[in-house]
Amino acid sequence: MPTPANPQKFAVDVHPSRIDGMGAFAAEAIPAYKKIGEIRGEPISVREARRRAKHQQRIMIVEISDKRAIDASASQDPMRYTNHSCSPNTVLRIQRGRVEFYALRNIASGEELTANYGETHHEGKLECRCGAPNCAGRI
């Protein structure tokens, strides 16, 4: 079986984050509106995703439809470390069952990549630590 193509379009490093745990950081300048990369993982049902997410602080699961989800917990893709921010520099889009990240603006090398995850499996019970001036306080 051939090795799947690398989904990364720009170099991304993983380092400790001031927001939470590990974070994804641009290893090169990324122009606005360009695809940065994606996360791959185990395809599971939404029901299984919600079961796995219960009582976990760090969740790497994305629901891609009302029936399917991707659990990226074992993924090697660096974008899985993209932390939440209420003032993000990327946007997560579901395209043909893929979880892709695009730059919302020019992103400098060394800048942490963040996305606003909106509704999450945390159901508003987890304190947000993004530090943005417009921080909602919970995710």
Key structural traits:
mainly beta, 10 strands, 6% helix, globular, S-adenosyl-L-methionine, SET_dom_sf, Post-SET_dom, chromosome
Describe this structure in words.
There is one protein chain. By secondary structure, the chain is mainly beta. The protein has a single domain, classed as Beta Complex (Beta-clip-like). The protein contains 1 helix and 10 strands. The strands form 4 sheets. A 3-stranded antiparallel beta sheet has the order 3-9-8, with no helix packed on it. A 3-stranded antiparallel beta sheet has the order 4-6-5, with helices on one face. A two-stranded antiparallel sheet has the order 1-2. A hairpin with a 2-residue loop joins strand 8 (90-95) and strand 9. The longest helix has 8 residues, at 46-53. It is globular and about 40 Å long. It starts with 11 loop residues before the first strand and ends in a 24-residue tail after the last strand. The mean pLDDT is 89.
